[in-house]
Amino acid sequence: MEHELKRLISESFRDIKKKEQLKPYEVPRDFIIEWEFFSQNNGLLSDHGKPMWPKLRQRYTTELDRLYEALASREIEKMQGIYHNRNGQTVMETVKMAVRTIIGSSDIDVKPSDQFRDLGGDSLSAVQLSTVLEDVFDTRIPVDMIISRGSDVQSLADYIEHKQGAVIDRPTVASIHGVGATAFHASQLKLDKFVSPNLLAQASTLPRPGGASRTVLLTGASGFLGRFLCLALLADLEECGGKLVCIVRGKDNASAYERLAGVFGQHDPKLDHEFRNLSARRLEVIAGDIALPQFGLDHDTWERLSGEVDAIVHAGALVNHVFSYSQIFEANVLGTTELIKLALTARLKEFVFISSIAVASPTESRNALDEDSDIRVSLPSIAIDGNYATGYATSKWAGEILLREANEKYSLPVTVFRSSMILAHRRYIGQLNVPDAFTRLLVSIILTRLAPVSFYNTNAIMSCLTAHYDGLPVDSTADAIITLGLGHHEGYRTYNLVNPHDDGISLDTVVDWLDEFGYRIRRVRDYVAWRDEFEGALQSLPEKDQKSSTLPLLHAYERPLTPISGSLISATRFEQAVQSAGIRLECIPHISPSLIAKYARDLETLGLIPPHEKRDSRLASCEAERMHM
């Protein structure tokens, strides 16, 4: 009877999927049939009728594990089928078969023009697809290429065919750090493992840069920070009659430009107009991929850029806090070395590198993050563990080490900016970074109306430590990078781009403001009780809300945070540079009520939270303040 019922339910799922045009990941691949209602009597519902998640997990864990094992077994059989059939079908047919298997839907029609994300793929399934295709074709496809909006299934098949027809021996994590390494060492990261001896020999004789940079190459322009670096550079180059070159993924230059323009064309017409106006005169978009040799460009284009470009601003990176170092290596480490090659070809070029304070994420290593120390000495090794963001952090650490050598041996002028949390733009509508931890937390607090009395260890606060949240608006971050980064013709400089104010503005303050704006947040005194209730409330949200919530990052809130007075790391050089330069920032901004009010309205604009029922007077005054900035 149960077998027949599961068959009928599965058929109904397929009918609903077809009718509602659901993605494969929106349809259960298997399920448990429960014959007993959830109730207070069996402990599966609370007194308020809410699901008791710990009890539910306890009741169903064993059976769910069995289902997952059965699914995994079926997936293994399908994977073996892909491998055995590889010689009897085209590369495209094999790629389609692999995509269907990873997505978990054998009846999905995969077309060459489909993008992996649109078929239901995500970052984790992209890792699986990359692994499967590497096993089948002995060719590794960068994970960021699979999930990029600039790539489709045809691009993946073309990449495999190109790699199979070419003999390219590129470095890997294993070839640099050793097979089975338990730690990565700065001494292993040497430029001669990435760059040809001939190019390095010629680099020592190149003329040094001088004068204003009239042609600037920018990577990562379609990213959150990158779009505002792009805008700031276009505005500056408009004044001197220069040109901005952006490397963007796309089938051709025209599609790459439209992909870039698309990130400006949402939510705020003023932003779109400013980009279109400036880009018409000062922008060249080239379809390419920095993770590929010479960005995947033809020889003539590479040679032209080598001769024309005066400065490189490298903001492009695969930012994913789940991926390991090896999964992120092509995009972030090989991508950086390709740009170093360009910087050391024809003539030396200024190099601006966007790093992260995460390069020394463990607390005991924070002393390695001052603005003067050579990171090769202050942080000579990184142990391999499962810490959050380790892969991304390690890739940025590797980039800094390689750039140190490029400066030391070949006089490449380098400026490194280690950024902390990058917050929403203070003026343009809808411009915030949806996947980041701060945005997810705001969404979650507003949707659940739950927060602890304090996010911080109250014993530490009572010991006179002041809690502070470290973050800077993206507009001030971009302005600082462009103003302080360019025009540097020699040496190596590091700026810790953080919010150093010991102002007592913390996550607790942000919740206070949200409450004042009329969101009516309920504060739970016991932190553990809040954490459990918060998780349950998030689990009860619709799936679309869960995706933008803090559910994937809940491990970061297992226990109260340690309060930090001001920034955790020194930013003396950054503070002094801002004061002496008199740049657009004028000063390093504090997190303000007007910024948080704008966050709330931006989240409404993006449909991440429901419209505010009635406009609170404090919220209205904060918005008025923002409009006059």
First-to-last CA distance: 67 Å
Structural class: alpha/beta
- How can the largest sheet be summarized? 7 strands, parallel
Average of the residue pLDDT scores: 86
Radius of gyration: 26 Å
Count the helices. How many?
Answer: 24
Shape: globular
| Beta-strand percent range | 5-15%
Low-confidence stretches: none
Percent in helix: 40-55%
Total count of strands: 13
Strands across the major sheet, in which order?
4-3-2-5-6-8-12
Describe this structure in words.
The chain has 629 residues and is of the alpha/beta class. 48% of the residues lie in helices and 9% in strands. The chain contains 24 helices and 13 strands. Strand 2 (215-219), helix 9 and strand 3 form a beta-alpha-beta unit.
In short:
Helix content is 48%, strand content 9%. The chain is α/β, with parallel strands linked by helices and 629 residues long.
Secondary-structure blueprint of this entry?
Elements: H1 2-20, H2 53-84, H3 91-103, H4 123-137, H5 143-147, H6 153-165, H7 173-177, E1 183-185, H8 197-203, E2 215-219, H9 224-240, E3 243-248, H10 253-264, H11 269-282, E4 283-287, H12 299-308, E5 311-314, H13 325-343, E6 350-356, H14 375-378, E7 381-383, H15 390-410, E8 414-419, E9 421-423, H16 437-448, E10 450-452, H17 458-462, E11 471-473, H18 474-485, E12 492-497, H19 507-519, E13 522-524, H20 527-539, H21 543-547, H22 572-581, H23 593-605, H24 617-627
Parallel strand pairs: 2-3, 2-5, 3-4, 5-6, 6-8, 8-12, 9-11, 10-13
Antiparallel strand pairs: 1-7
Helix pairs in contact: 2-3, 3-4, 3-6, 9-11, 9-18, 13-15, 19-23, 23-24
